[in-house]
Specification:
Layout: H1 3-13, H2 27-54, H3 64-88
Length: 100
């Protein structure tokens, strides 16, 4: 809720902080928000995994089928790297040598 914190985040880190306004009207709003949070958390978890493991924030796709194909290509490359390492007798997760 601090304007100084919002300005500092914007100027130092380039972040835009969004503040959800508090609503003290009743328990129904809290119940609905709790339900939305239950739905939102798994979705954010999946997005985090895809971002951290596949670098999906930089894939520049324009459609859902493009996202599917790009993700499929990354998963295939990961599997091939593990397979090559297994055949060559190296550690399976040491796949950084195959990165371009």
């Amino acid at each position: 809720m601090s304007k100084k914190l919002v300005q500092a985040a914007k100027s130092l880190l380039g972040l835009t902080l969004l503040i959800r306004p508090r609503d003290y009207k009743g328990r129904f709003v809290a119940f609905v928000q709790h339900g939305l949070d239950k739905v939102r958390k798994p979705i954010e978890g999946v997005i985090w995994v895809l971002t951290e493991n596949f670098g999906l924030e930089h894939i520049l796709v324009r459609s859902d089928i493009g996202l599917y194909r790009r993700t499929q290509a990354k998963a295939t490359a990961f599997s091939l790297g593990r397979y090559f390492n297994e055949v060559l007798g190296m550690a399976p997760m040491d796949i950084t040598r195959y990165a371009v």
